[in-house]
Structure formats: C-alpha cells, structure tokens
Amino acid sequence: MRPFDFAPLYRSTVGFDRLFDLIDTAAAPRPDWPPYNIEKTGENAYRITMAVAGFRPDEVELTQQANTLVVTGRKTAGANDRQMLHKGIAFRDFTQTFNLADYVKVSGATLQDGLLSVDLVREVPERLKPRRIEIASAAQPAESSVKQIEQAKAA
C-alpha cells in the first residue's frame, strides 16, 4: 500500500486538521503484538482484553491522557537471565495506543491468567445529554413568561 502525504493540504484547510491527523494515523501500520480484543459489555461500557502472557502487573503500565489510552509493557532486567532452549513465547517490550471517544474513561484494569482486561465507561455530562423541551401554546406564553421572570428574580 502506498502512503499518502497530506502535508500540502494542511496549508489550505481551517478546522480540518484533526481529520487529516486521523487519516494519517489510520494509514500508519499498527503493531500486531500483543493481540487484543475490543468488546462492548453494556450500553456505555467497553472492555479491551490484551494477551500479555509472561508479564506481571508491575511490568505493565496504563496511561490515559485526554482521549488516548497507552498500554506499555516492559520486562524487568532479571527476566532475560535464563538460558532458553526454545523460545516460543514473546517477552518483548510493547506499546499499544488506543484512541478513545469523547467522555470515555478507564474504570478499572485486571491482569489474570495472562490476559489484561481494561474496562472503559462512557460518561456523558448531563448538560450534553439530549433533553425534552416543552412547547407552550399561544395562550400560555404570557403567563409562563411572567412565572419564569418571578422565579429568576427570587433566585
């Protein structure tokens, strides 16, 4: 696949910079190790499960900054002291980055049986959720407006 350079388009756009960044990121090759699954576990809940066999909890680090989740695994120095006759399990260091949607936060993480499970939850603020707006009839606006003005003055 031939990569495209979007740099010349940046000069002539206003407000679409993030769009081209997303296209650049999507076109870049993603690391294929460690393997992972992403599942939807509820209405606003998700789980990322990564196969990190051989890593202890203190060798895996999770960092969320804004809308990016970074999972990093680093083997400690003593892990490579053994003499291996056959090495079929990869113990190499890794960094895996996930772009999260707005208002998605990490709610917890567990490492059990070689599987790292990262639970995510989407918490949309009340002010951004859709709300129903009552429509007044033509005879009511004066009455309801007076009540609203009186309530505003009292507060």
Automatic annotation (TrEMBL):
<feature type="domain" description="SHSP">
    <location>
        <begin position="27"/>
        <end position="138"/>
    </location>
</feature>
<dbReference type="InterPro" id="IPR002068">
    <property type="entry name" value="A-crystallin/Hsp20_dom"/>
</dbReference>
<dbReference type="InterPro" id="IPR037913">
    <property type="entry name" value="ACD_IbpA/B"/>
</dbReference>
<dbReference type="Pfam" id="PF00011">
    <property type="entry name" value="HSP20"/>
</dbReference>
<comment type="similarity">
    <text>Belongs to the small heat shock protein (HSP20) family.</text>
</comment>
<keyword id="KW-0346">Stress response</keyword>
<protein>
    <submittedName>
        <fullName>Heat-shock protein Hsp20</fullName>
    </submittedName>
</protein>
<dbReference type="InterPro" id="IPR008978">
    <property type="entry name" value="HSP20-like_chaperone"/>
</dbReference>
